[in-house]
Write a sequence for this structure.
């Protein structure tokens, strides 16, 4: 039996398990590319307006750090794909990390990989199959992005180069995940290490693009820009992605052969023999489990809020056309451009904090599948208190993250020089106004989980679906009832709009009703 025996079967199994997750991400990323490509030509009435906007972006270090520079201001494709080239490439990296981690470290931690290894499957087959699947999905993402750009009216050659840059990011992220999954026996720690690796590469690119250009060549995200996809592409840059991925995969293989199955390079430290008295309740236990993740999300929301707040006051110069202003007001509402950008940023923050609540729910589903929930329920803890603890941590964490993001936005906006007519005093309230919508979406995901544990992954489709309904509303001329399906559609877009308690109360009532239905169903279904 060879070391890679059974890899083909494992690839087929992985693709089957990801038959909903991967297509959803691919279609979402493709839709975002199409929306950006199709909308940009209408944002600027002339090439001169496009050049002025590009020069304004390049003249703002905060925007360059976030999106990357525009190397050719006259290129429609480069202006259209400004955010997609670097910032949205992070989502491609996240997808690759999720896939590799799911089929390697998560399988080892649960013990399923040990069962698979006991069959006619080679030692190297699990890692190889996970890498092949992640690379295949990355290629699919690049292909869909290319087709979306072409359908949006951008040149074919530039679209191909842009899609190839996303494939390169996916391949590098796949290799990064392969390395981090060898370092720790904990799936959560591996995910944190991979996310930290991607974050470091992004920061290196940001510093390079704003201060030291040579640093941009040390990061794959910098290569996305240096590829010059939309003007005389440097095709040889694609070899950098391949070379780095090959080196990292070699490191991952060397680490894997030097550790035992189920362990990591860094030995896991045993916990205390007796649990602290404060962990006697389900709520305290859930808070303890998610404390590290909440701290990480808090730091991320703090940074995100400060960056968007610092950029907001300069948006009047960056959006030098009525069409560009309309793009911001689509999400941010009518009003001053800077205030509209803040409102649009809060829209995105609301989606992100909803994802935190979904991670708490996904962890609960994993605990149930691996038998830990039964151990908790074997004590004096009831099903109701266990479910309430999950909901409290997920929804309470979302509220806390909105508070942090809103406070950071307010601070960044004020320090960067907000206009005297700006509604900075309403930013924090505007952030908290998104909490009921996030609670309702989380409640719908809890209801799906309560119906059947294996359906929990469907909850992850809710935020991107609601985002697409908002982004594609104008492009596809969707009927009003279609956009009103989204819980986010009724939230007042503060600070440009005034606070309206009526829709907030309706969202809270719906969230309570959905959670009550989930509780009623969860009481009666089998655990596991």
């Amino acid at each position: 039996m060879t070391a890679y025996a059974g890899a083909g079967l494992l690839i087929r199994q992985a693709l089957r398990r990801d038959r909903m997750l991967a297509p959803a991400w691919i279609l979402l990323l493709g839709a975002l590319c199409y929306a950006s490509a199709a909308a940009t030509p209408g944002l600027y009435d002339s090439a001169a307006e496009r050049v002025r906007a590009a020069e304004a972006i390049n003249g703002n270090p905060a925007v360059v750090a976030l999106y990357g520079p525009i190397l050719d201001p006259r290129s429609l494709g480069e202006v259209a794909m400004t955010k997609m080239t670097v910032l949205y490439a992070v989502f491609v990296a996240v997808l690759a990390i999720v896939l590799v981690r799911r089929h390697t470290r998560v399988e080892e931690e649960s013990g399923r990989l040990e069962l698979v290894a006991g069959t006619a499957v080679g030692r190297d087959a699990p890692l190889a199959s996970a890498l092949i699947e992640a690379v295949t999905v990355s290629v699919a993402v690049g292909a869909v992005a290319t087709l979306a750009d072409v359908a949006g009216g951008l040149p074919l050659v530039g679209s191909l180069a842009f899609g190839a840059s996303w494939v390169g990011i996916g391949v590098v992220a796949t290799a990064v995940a392969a390395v981090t999954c060898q370092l720790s026996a904990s799936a959560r720690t591996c995910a944190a290490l991979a996310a930290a690796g991607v974050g470091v590469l992004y920061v290196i690119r940001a510093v390079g693009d704003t201060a030291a250009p040579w640093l941009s060549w040390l990061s794959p995200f910098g290569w996305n820009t240096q590829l010059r996809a939309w003007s005389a592409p440097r095709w040889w840059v694609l070899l950098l992605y391949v070379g780095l991925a090959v080196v990292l995969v070699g490191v991952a293989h060397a680490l894997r052969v030097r550790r035992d199955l189920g362990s990591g390079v860094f030995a896991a430290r045993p916990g205390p023999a007796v649990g602290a008295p404060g962990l006697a309740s389900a709520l305290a236990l859930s808070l303890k489990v998610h404390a590290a993740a909440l701290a990480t999300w808090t730091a991320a929301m703090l940074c995100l809020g400060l960056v968007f707040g610092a950029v907001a006051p300069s948006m009047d110069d960056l959006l030098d056309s009525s069409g560009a202003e309309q793009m911001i007001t689509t999400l941010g509402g009518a009003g001053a451009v800077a205030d509209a950008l803040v409102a649009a940023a809060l829209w995105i923050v609301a989606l992100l904090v909803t994802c935190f609540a979904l991670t708490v729910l996904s962890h609960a589903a994993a605990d149930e599948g691996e038998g830990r929930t039964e151990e908790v329920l074997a004590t004096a803890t009831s099903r109701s208190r266990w479910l309430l603890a999950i909901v409290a941590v997920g929804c309470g964490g979302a509220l806390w993250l909105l508070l942090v993001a809103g406070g950071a936005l307010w601070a960044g906006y004020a320090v960067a020089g907000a206009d005297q007519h700006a509604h900075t005093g309403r930013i924090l309230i505007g952030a908290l106004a998104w909490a009921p919508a996030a609670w309702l979406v989380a409640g719908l995901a809890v209801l799906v989980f309560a119906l059947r544990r294996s359906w929990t992954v469907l909850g992850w489709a809710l935020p991107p679906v609601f985002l697409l309904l908002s982004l594609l509303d104008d492009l596809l001329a969707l009927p009003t009832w279609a956009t009103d399906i989204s819980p986010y559609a009724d939230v007042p877009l503060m600070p440009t709009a005034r606070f309206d308690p009526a829709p907030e109360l309706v969202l809270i009532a719906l969230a309570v009703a959905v959670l009550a239905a989930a509780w009623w169903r969860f009481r009666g279904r089998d655990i596991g």
User: Anything to note?
Assistant: Confidence is low (pLDDT under 50) at residues 320-325, 327-335. The chain has two domains: 1-266, 279-528.
